[in-house]
Specification:
about 210 residues; disordered C terminus; 13 strands; Rossmann fold; about 35% helix; alpha/beta; five-stranded parallel sheet
Length: about 210
């Protein structure tokens, strides 16, 4: 967080655009396919904080490009910012993260493999969780999700209530399942399906590239 005053000059959106453009992941004015920037324009920063913020953003961007969300072509980075009130003073709050992907899988080994592999692709994994109840709880409390990867059969219970909850929020999703396409209800026939055993690179690859 950075405290703001009326005589500030440099805006945060100018600072973050300049830093990311310097790393070659976006043009100066346009975020590009791997970056989403969300926040008000013209949030001006106190001059004494600009250098500190610039250094921090440089470290975050360098790490994202070398090791994190931007280290692979299908990776994606979300940067969100906004003003909050702290003890009567305006403050800037910044959120820097990769895609948030919910993983619902009752096979412990596969769930761990998915978590690890999605993390390597720059995603922030929510979960994994093994039951419908656990998944619905996460959907309700975790805030924005960019995508979800769901096993169809969770300890004998179908995952469809979770699908309905995610669809109501506009969250794209994919199934990881051993079921054939014909075995799924017509209401879920349009959900992308990755057959088990799965290629761990595939379940969320489209979401890492294009989810919003």
């Amino acid at each position: 967080m950075s405290r703001l005053e009326e005589d500030d000059r440099t805006s945060f959106d100018e600072l973050i655009r300049t830093e990311l453009a310097g790393h070659g992941v976006m043009a100066r004015e346009e975020p590009g396919p791997q970056v989403t920037l969300e926040g008000p324009k013209g949030v001006r920063l106190r001059s004494s904080t600009v250098q500190t913020l610039a250094s921090g953003l440089h470290e975050f961007a360098t790490n994202a490009v070398k090791h994190g969300a931007l280290s692979r072509p299908e990776g994606h980075l979300n940067v969100r910012w906004g003003l909050t009130d702290q003890d009567g003073e305006a403050c800037l709050r910044v959120e820097w993260r990769g895609r948030r992907i919910l993983v619902v899988e009752d096979d412990t080994m596969l769930a761990d493999d998915l978590r690890r592999d999605l993390g390597k692709q720059g995603a922030e994994v929510v979960g994994p969780v093994p039951t419908v109840a656990d998944a619905l709880e996460l959907v309700a409390r975790e805030g924005p999700l960019d995508a979800a990867v769901l096993d169809v059969n969770l300890r004998g219970e179908r995952v469809f209530p979770v699908v309905d909850a995610l669809r109501a929020r506009g969250v794209p999703l994919a199934f990881t399942t051993g079921y054939e396409q014909w075995a799924l209800p017509d209401a879920y026939a349009d959900v992308p399906r990755c057959e088990k055993p799965i290629d761990l690179r595939q379940p969320a690859k489209p979401f890492l590239a294009s989810a919003s």
